[in-house]
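Predict structure. Chain length: 630.
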Amino acid sequence: MTNPSIDFNKIKSDYQLQTSTLKRRIIVCAGTGCVANGSKKVFDELEKKITEAGLNLLLELAFEEEEKHPHFLSESGCQGFCQMGPLITIQPDDILYTKVRVEDVAEIVEETLVNNKVVERLLYKDVNNNHCRGYKEIPFYNRQQRTVLKECGLINPGDINEYIAHGGYKSAEKAILEWSSEEICESIIKSGLRGRGGGGFPTGLKWKLTLKEENVKKYIICNGDEGDPGAFMDRSVMEGNPHSVIEGMIIAARAIKADEGVVYVRAEYPLAVRRIRKAVKDAEKLGMLGEHVLGSDFNFKIDVMEGAGAFVCGEETALIASVEGLRGMPSPKPPFPAQKGLNGKPTVINNVETLASVPVILRMGPDSYRNIGTEKSPGTKTFALTGHVINTGLIEVPFGVTLREIVFSIGGGVTDDNGNLTDEGFKAVQIGGPSGGCLTKDHLDLPLDFDSLKGIGAMVGSGGLVVMNQHTCMVQMARFFMQFTQNESCGKCVLCREGTKQMLALLDDIIEGNADDNTLVLLESLARAVQKGSLCGLGKTAPNPVLAMLKHFKDEYTAHVRDKKCPAKKCKSLAYPVIDPVLCKGCQVCKKSCPTGAISGDKKQVHVIDESLCIKCGACITACKLKAVA
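Prediction complete.
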């Protein structure tokens, strides 16, 4: 069966003709975060209230010629500003409503859609308490540079025609009908695109190496097995613009002469799975997947597979084993997947963001793309910004941007433990998840790119950014990531399986006050051994958070070990007893029981404990019958 050529220009013009009579488009964020926060109910209430107001509502772009100026209600993928969800965008008014609830819908319909007024209380307020009407006025958005995420949050992820109307599949058409495989590889090499999954290997070079393999059967695998704690970049792209991923796979397949692809998605991403499956079916129906695509000699099909959620399956060889139905465990390299991958055939594995970048590069040209970012790290990077920061969410910035710009301009500043902006400020950022490293105040003006981060022992990783304030215990943070990697170790090699377990035990000793100076020496020595001798990337990078925090916060570790104190006052075993001023009656029983005279206070007055004298013996806690000491 031969698929005829597709008239993309006609699809685009038809779509533009349909949308030309729209008075307004109301876009409800239907990314996972907003859905969990009630955006589906908001959507249903909007449909109900708009209909009741007689505003000629459309839910699909298929209407009669005589219908004029309707209101079009649609869903989108993640709009990025997760902290402020559920979000509603109204175009062409350029209005963004934040934290919208069902009970707000009637007012939105009455004031904005009927009376053309803005509901100010639903607008975002900046740090100076000024109302920001839309994207252009909100620092979180206007300081970003979106390429991969440009259409996410705006287009309907389930409408292939809208994707085409925004230039979709034109890059694939060019790659299939106009360029040779070698030309595609050279164009991607020229762009400088590097893998966005963590390693930063040149994408075009990976394709070229696979192209050189003489085998009639080759595969493309999209790695959507995003497992880092707090990371949701790939999920958001698959949910918000799944066709960009499929188009990237088509171009990659054409580049290496593959005829089959697999999208490997975590089963914990049900919305991403559902949308990517629909996108594949729609692409097949259109003729962009199947036999003789666009009437050419190019055949390509895509299957979608759900992964079981093992972090180790983010590693190439473990992922391949999982796709083959085996236990997800890494294999030694070489041979590399480009030589012997899925079913023993040459295979290219790229992550979601990498593949979604490919159509953008071919559309704008490799030279223009290379002008974004830095010389050795061109383009942009998506980050999941979380932790102690005012504005959490999904962001995209050019490589070379500083940490200061992300945390204080886009992120809006550092918060205390209650979520309020604090002057006490920034302590550190964990970048790249459990495989990454720790950045401190000294790195606030460091340009973020592959090479600069590698130079200080960190890495871009998949793109997680966890901001920490001054009240964060860095030993506990190291333990958190070590607990994760220890749980996720596949157990194949001893150094990773047993080394991470022993590192976790040593961190527990430090937190519980059972460590000495030798504990720190042993912890660092063991971390170096695990880093050097583990089989795959999970084991080799598992010690990174521990080593980075030992390097930058050695005094904090020393305080735990030598002084038996937690400077952040978060480790309960090392915490000093505290007298509750509400419960204390000044009976002086605790004062009399203290062997070091650390408790002071007159009779019938609230007592206090001097931490410099306290030895944490617990005598005061035992003596107090009012339970005022804890």
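Summary: The radius of gyration is 28 Å.
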